[in-house]
Please model this.
Amino acid sequence: MRKRESVDVDLNIALYSEADACFRAGRFRDALRLFKRAAQADPLDSDCWFAIGSCLDALNRPTRAEAAYLKALSMAPEEDHPALPFSVGNALFDQQRFEEATGWYARVPAEHEVFARADRNRRLAESKAKRTSQVGAERSEAQRRSLTACSEVRVCDVGPRLRLGANLPVRRREVQTSLGVASTTDWAPALALACALAGRSPRCSTGPLGSGGRRSIRP
Model:
């Protein structure tokens, strides 16, 4: 069996008090360090994890703040921390997880002092969730249109290329036949055509030229 972690209640209380003073003075990093030490002194103290989450929230670390808040909830009933759902909602809100935040804000009891703020944040989260959904739909539609347009451009672009590629060898043969060129090289017909346009009679040399074995058309 797992050995139960030791608890030092006196140390926990002393560290918690010192951390609370730091938090109220705006020294959030110092407060976070002390609250963590207080949690080590009493690992089952849900208040410490609630406070750790508040420090992380103040340090703009919403993901870690959410984890700390949820850990606090796992240690004690929600009734013991009625304002904790408000804090969880804020952490989710800061992560732009607006739909999830809405549900947590709604869990704050109506009689609690933070209910008015939770309700305001809930309505704001609902508005942002709708806007995010609309923006997402607009982006998806824009991407769909862009892909459709790209597909249409590719079809028009590839079509002529394929047709040119298929016709090119035929054009070469036509040039060879019309000029009486016997060479089978790819560049010879082009030179023959150039000579013909210049008013000269091409003459084909089929033998090798030097050691390279190249063939040439001489005017």
